[in-house]
Amino acid sequence: MVPFAKSRLGIDDGQLGILLLFLGGGSLVGMPLTGLLTARFGYRLIIICGTLVAAAVLPILAAGMSVLGMAVALAVFGAAIGAIDVAMNVQAVIVQKRMGLSLMSGFHACYSIGGTIGAGGLSALLKLGASPLQACLALGILMFVAVSSRAMGFIPLANDGGKTTPLFVVPRPLVLFIGLFSALVFMAEGAVLDWSGVFLLQYRGAEPYAAGSGYAAFAVAITGGRLIGDRLVDAVGGRRVLLGGGLISAIGFVVVLALPSQLFALCGFMLVGFGAANIIPLMFKAAGVQTSMPANLAVATVTTLAYGGHMLGPAFIGLVAHFLDLRVAFAMLATTMVFVAFAGRAVLADSSRGGQEAVNQL
Questions:
Q1: Which residues, 6 or more positions from 24, have their beta carbon under 8 angstroms from its beta carbon?
Q2: pLDDT tens digits along 291-326
Q3: Which pTM value belongs to this model?
Q4: How far apart are the first and last CA of the chain?
Q5: Cα(351)–Cα(193) distance, rounded to whole angstroms?
Q6: Domain limits of the chain?
Q7: Is 251 helix (H, G, I), strand (E, B) or coil?
Q8: CATH tag, 2-154+170-361
C-alpha cells in the first residue's frame, strides 16, 4: 500500500522516509512496553487486542488524506504490530521449550506465509477492481477473524511455569551483538516490504496493481527457505547456512539493480528472500542458547532490536533515496548482507559460550 499512500499524499521519497519513521517509532514504543503489559494481562489478551487495533487502523492507512493523520495512524499501527511481534516470539520460545523440538524456523515460515497472503492477496483484489480502502477492510476483517477464532489456543500467562522474571535487565554485550545482526537482516527485509513496490514502479515500469509482486516474490522464497531450514542446518551446519544465505541475499540485490527487467527484479527479490530465510531463526536460536543472560529476556531483547531494524530501516532507505537514489540504497543493502554473512558467523559460533570470552573474540 506504500506507493498508493505516497501518490495520494503527494510526497517525495524523503518525506515518505520521514513518515515511515512514525511506524518504526510506534513499534519501538510498543515493544518494550509488551513485557510490562504481558506481566499484567498475559499474552492472549495482548495478541488479540493488538490485532484488533491493527485491523482497525488499516482502513485509515488506505484512505488517509492528511500527512499528520497518517503519521498518527502509522504510530498506532506500529505500536500494535510491535506488541504482537514480541508476544508471539516469546510465546514461540515457550512452546518450543515445552515441546522439546526445534520449531522456530517453522514459526517464522508461518509469518512469511502471512506476508505472501497479504501482498499477493491485496494485489489480486486491486487487480479485480477493489479500491485500496476496500482491500484493507477485507484484510482487517480476515485478520481479526483468524486470530479471534484461535484465541483459546494462545498461552494466556505472562510467564512459563509460574516463574517470575524481572521487567527489565541490562542486556549483555553478546545479546546486543546478536540483536544488531538481526536488525541488519530485518532492515533488508523491511526495505523489500516498503520499497520494492516503489522500485518496480519507478525503475522497472510495473503497473500499479503489481506493486506488491516484489514483496510477494520475496515472501514466497523466504517461506520456502524456512520450511526446509531445520533440515538444511542439520545437513550443513548453521555457520554455513548463515554464510551462504548472506551472500545469496547480496547477489539478489545485485540482480535487482543490474538487470533492467521487471522479471529479473522479481527473481532478485526471491534470491534476497531465500538467502535471508534462515538467518533470523538462527539468531533467535543463538539468543536462546547463550548463557550470559536468561534466554527469555535475551529473546525479548533480540526481538526488539531486530524489529527495530525492520521498522526503522525503511525510513533510512527513504532518506538515502531522497538525497542520493533508491538504487544506491539497495546497493548499500547488498554490502550489508555481505557483512552479515561473514561477521554474523562469529556471533553464531560463540553464542553457546556466552560470557566475556565470546565478546572478546567478537
A1: 78, 308, 311, 312, 314, 315
A2: 777 766 777 788 888 877 877 777 788 888 888 888
A3: 0.72
A4: 40
A5: 30
A6: 2-154+170-361
A7: helix
A8: 1.20.1250.20
